[in-house]
Amino acid sequence: MKKQAVAVGLILASALPALAKRPNVIYIMTDQQSANAMSCAGNTDLKTPAMDRLAARGVRFANAYCALPLSGPSRAAMFTGIMPSQCGMLENETPLPDSLRNRTLGNLMEEAGYDNGYAGKWHVNTNALPAEKAFGFRRLHGHDDRGLAEAAVEFLRSDHGGKPFFLVASFDNPHNICQYARGQRLPEAEIPEPASVADCPNLPANHLVQPYDPDILSWERGLSYRLYPTNGYTPDDWRRYRNAYFRLVEHVDAEIGKIVDEIDRQGLWDDTVVIFTSDHGDGQGAHQWNQKTALWEETANIPLIVCAPERKKHAGKVSEALVNNGIDLMPSVLDWAGKGKPAWCDGASFRYAAEDPDAASAQEFVVTETDFAQTGGTKGWMLRTPRYKYVLYEAGANREALYDMDNDRLETRNLAIESTYKPVVEEHRRMLAQWFDDNPGGLRYSRRRFIPVN
Questions:
Q1: Which of these, 274, 329, 406, lies nearest to 105 by C-alpha position?
Q2: What percentage of the chain reaches a pLDDT higher than 70?
């Protein structure tokens, strides 16, 4: 019996170093930030020193997309690993199904032995976590950017009982651009109005609606003044809008900087995975679009920066790997935590690309879906391959679009109307049809209803 006890003790002792190597995870998220709304992404209309510091230390993913460009569905995908249509989460107000309430990323990380804290916006579906302890997390701070960074810092300084920790710091801004567009008081930021429109950013090169853009978007935009109060905007109005949007990004960047400063103070980089992203983007006046839901790059392509402990030889690099930051978050975080991907999860880990940004994409394509549930109910899909982006809406003229992402990231030339690209369109239709077949349910119950056959 004594020998058995010694043997067990040796086994446990040998396991301790492996457990100790599991990194902490810090997940920092903004709301409604496009991938191009960072100075490290080449945008000269704003300065984001905190985000730039993360990009300099880690890997920035150029081709990361949200699961659905609306807060509730996007976040549901992040914390369940399931596409919004699969789990029935297509609107902000939809509660998480009972079958998933104990199978969230927080629950799984708690089971893996992590000390979990959540600060800020939850929105799956309540704005903040619904209780002091919910979905595997302790609530550190409610849905309010004021004091959020301080609450996150306090968690980082607290005693975690010898456990690795998983911190989520979820900011609301630059989401206040929605209130700005409606002429309302900004709830969580104060930004000065410029003295002159000459002090505002210029219009983007893709500001004008093109003749072969999907026309269903114009119809949807006309259905709700609350969501789209910009139909009568002049070019100067759009420039002021863009100025406000970029100032809001800078505002939240300063708050993120407080957390990055604390990571520096504690020297956490060598044993912590830091992930920065957003739930979806904003139109920013591209294609004369504000808000989200549409499948333009500005709304679907989101920032994703990962600083992993193995980052040093790859710091500052950009990965071209295709990522869905919704369904791919769960398997990635669990991968670092030493826990396998659950059977119900739709996504794939992006850890490999964070640790080797020169590696080819592990996924042939990623899909973003949408549902204009808040207005006319139009459904749509975006399928992104290494070179092309194929977009399909269920109705309207030019409901199919194909864009060359190597040469037309601004999406100004719809190649789907050109006979030269018919084979490319058909190949992307085939891939989307296969995706429908592989993922039955929700929006995807019948590919024949949506995908053109000629």
A1: 329
A2: 93
